[in-house]
Specification:
seven-stranded parallel beta sheet; about 700 residues; binds magnesium ion; binds adenosine-5'-diphosphate; globular; alpha/beta
Length: about 700
């Protein structure tokens, strides 16, 4: 078939710029917005904050303004009898004057603005009113286009014409890509009608049905792909059955627990116990805000492994965190006959040899290490359970690497304090089950967060001084400018000097990414031990360190940080019983988006609310972890941030099908398995997790 309006040149541009090769591709190039063109406003109704509007009237007169440098501004005074507005063009003087005629009726379309107390539209879309039947115009689609496309005359308008021509030529219905029962039960629009409507909508109601159908389809196949993968894994690898909860767990629970578990902790421990006894390998993501007590949950899960004569391992992202876990776990287990060992880059020589031997002969029960443990040739006698702390990017491939360490894959618990909204988690980590600790231990005071302009830095200094004089410690964080480590370091060095001069009476630590690990650890240690009162750092302290005595987190140039980063940093304080503070310092001039981010931080301590807000402000593509995740985030029509309910619906439907056909090859679902195969062939992102 040949499509009028697409010659070889345009064909090439469409392919290069948008990857459009086939009619099918063009049909799936959906508009990004619509404007209702059946509605006509009167000029008197218009205000400057309206989106695109349409008015019908006549040009009364033209006026030309010389703007210097041979540039011209043309203004047409336009009226519909209710009022007068200005249509404005820059640079197109001559063509405008010849194209439009005074007194003729036009339909003008554009974004109204107020200038010199008059309504104006700059560079309006103008059509001859005679040839337009407004009542049939409905919703006008807008397509995104690139600069190169525009150069070839491929504007949104011409994309609209192309898709319309294509849709009009669709005589036969296109093959349906969802099961008839799905379409019927979920009241979805048929595929052909949906495609037609999405490019050629007549009213808002059918348009939203069409969009729902296409979003559902898109999300459904993503979920089907994930769940098929998970089902496959489950079949291939059986999990160890930890049938009993024995004396180790019970002794700990009844005699060593220093405080009652929160309800959320209890619930998650139950979920984990159920998984580990089920006969399938556990792959669970544990989300819990900073300070929600994930370590204890991890420890109790490891004790279940011990009760079943298996070893357990917990991995942290840094050596200092691993050491902290060691100290915490040893003190929790004090008096119990359990051997806990540490393995990091710092453990060398004879000590290392002893640990490795202990792992091999089974005498080491719990190993605490850095993530490097999975890379190394560390061998266990019977590794049954692995906890991965503060590493939400612990992907499928890394998990697979663990399996070389024991006969069957060990149960895996991945813990993260970076809350991920449910819908995103379902898409990103769809093969993981998710547990959430949504409750902080009692008695925590929320961190009070304040915004300071940098002009008021001296007021802030006096607050810091007061806290340190009361025996508290303070973090000061400078942004990490990734493109330029040099500027970054200079920033930090300068900031450090300023602070040193401002606080001559205190000891300061300084930590940044360019330091050697050993140096960094030593400097952190000085702060952890209380030898220094202030830790000046780039974001290396983002995850995990626990210094309950620190009560102030100052974030310099806070506008440079993302919401989840700000929240993580704030989580470093508020760990003791005292009131803690987070102070966000920014310059006076801020973008709208930054202001929103800062406002949210000042309003709430709830990590999930913050994550939701982040997702809505930035979109999922920018969220930490999504780019590396190898998942399809160039969604064509669905929007993870706003289409949560549809994600859930698609998930349920896909789950239903995989439950019914775990081998994913039943004849009755042929349509789906074939389509999935096609999609995987064309989408690199999809292949990555398959
Ligand atoms: P995170 O989830 O950020 O890793 P941690 O596991 O480090 O949090 O716990 C933070 C602090 O809360 C620790 O000092 C821990 O001992 C304490 N904690 C954990 N659970 C409880 C609880 N149920 N009641 C009181 N304190 C708790
Ligand atoms: Mg932790």
């Amino acid at each position: 078939m040949y499509l009028p309006g697409v010659g070889p040149n345009r064909k090439k541009v469409l392919s290069q710029e948008l990857g459009i090769e086939t009619f099918g591709d063009l049909l799936e190039y959906y508009p990004y917005k619509y404007v209702d063109r059946s509605k006509v406003y009167t000029i008197r109704e218009l205000t400057g904050d309206m989106p695109f509007v349409q008015v019908v009237g006549r040009i009364l007169s033209f006026e030309k303004f010389d703007m210097g440098h041979k540039k011209m501004r043309v203004v047409a005074h336009f009226s519909d009898g209710t009022a007068i507005m200005d249509l404005v063009w820059f640079n197109y003087a001559q063509s405008v004057l010849t194209k439009y005629t005074i007194g003729r009726q036009y339909v003008v379309f554009g974004k109204p603005a107020v200038f010199n107390n008059r309504i104006q539209v700059v560079h309006p879309d103008i059509d001859d009113a005679e040839h337009l039947d407004l009542s049939s115009m409905g919703m006008q689609p807008y397509y995104s286009t690139t600069e190169k496309m525009k150069k070839m005359g491929l504007t949104s308008r011409s994309m609209e014409r192309l898709t319309k021509t294509l849709v009009e030529r669709l005589k036969e219905p296109l093959p349906e890509t969802l099961l008839p029962q799905t379409v019927a039960l979920r009241h979805l629009m048929e595929r052909t009608e949906a495609l037609r409507t999405v490019h050629y909508p007549t009213n808002a109601r059918t348009l939203s049905q069409a969009r729902l159908r296409l979003k559902f389809e898109e999300l459904f196949y993503i979920q089907l792909n994930i769940l098929r993968y998970a089902s496959d894994q489950r079949r291939k690898y059986r999990g160890y059955v930890f049938a009993k909860v024995g004396p180790v767990f019970n002794t700990f629970y009844s005699q060593h627990l220093p405080f009652p578990l929160t309800e959320a902790q209890k619930r998650v421990v139950r979920e984990i116990r159920r998984d580990m006894g089920s006969g399938r390998q556990m792959n669970r993501l544990l989300q819990g805000d900073v300070g929600s007590g994930k370590t204890l949950v991890a420890l109790m899960s490891m004790l279940i492994a011990l009760d079943n004569d298996y070893q357990a391992c917990i991995m942290a992202p840094t050596e200092i965190l691993a050491e902290q876990h060691l100290v915490t776990i040893m003190s929790f287990l004090e008096g119990m006959d359990i051997r806990v060992a540490l393995l990091t880059g710092m453990v060398k020589g004879r000590r290392r040899k002893e640990v490795l031997e202990g792992l091999l002969d089974g005498s080491v029960h719990i190993l605490v290490g850095t993530h490097a443990v999975i890379e190394d040739n560390v061998q266990f006698a019977r590794l049954g359970m692995v906890v991965v702390d503060e590493q939400h990017r612990f992907g499928v491939a890394q998990r697979a690497r663990l399996w070389s360490k024991s006969q069957n894959p060990p149960h895996v618990l991945v813990m993260t304090a970076t809350p991920i909204p449910r819908t995103l988690a379902m898409t990103l980590y769809g093969d993981l089950d998710v547990s959430v600790i949504d409750e902080l231990p009692p008695g925590r005071k929320p961190v009070a967060t304040y915004h300071y302009f940098d002009s008021r830095i001296t007021t802030l200094y006096s607050g810091i001084r007061r806290q340190i004089n009361e025996g508290r410690q303070v973090y000061v964080v400078f942004p990490l400018i990734e493109e330029s480590e040099k500027i970054d370091l200079k920033n930090l060095e300068q900031g450090y000097e300023v602070l040193r001069q401002a606080f001559p009476e205190f000891q300061l630590s300084k930590v940044h990414g360019r330091m050697k690990p050993a140096e960094k650890e030593a400097e952190m240690q000085r702060f952890v031990s209380g030898e220094t009162q202030m830790l000046v750092a780039t974001t290396v302290i983002e995850v995990g360190v626990n210094v309950p005595n620190a009560s102030v987190m100052v974030i310099m140039d806070a506008q440079r940080f993302g919401l989840s980063q700000l929240h993580q940093l704030r989580g470093r304080v508020g760990r003791g019983a005292d009131q803690s503070y987070c102070l966000l310092v920014t310059p006076y001039k801020l973008s709208e988006e930054t202001r929103k981010r800062i406002d949210i931080m000042c309003q709430t301590n709830d990590g999930f609310r913050i994550a939701e807000a982040d997702l809505k402000l930035r979109g999922p593509g920018d969220l930490e972890g999504t780019q590396q995740s190898g998942m399809a985030f160039d969604l064509k029509i669905a929007d993870i941030a706003h289409d949560g309910q549809i994600v859930q619906m698609a998930r349920d439907e896909a789950q239903h099908i995989v439950d019914d056909d775990p081998l994913c090859q039943a004849e009755r679902y042929n349509l789906l398995w074939k389509r999935l195969k096609e999609l995987r062939k064309t989408n690199i992102n999809w292949a990555a997790i398959s």
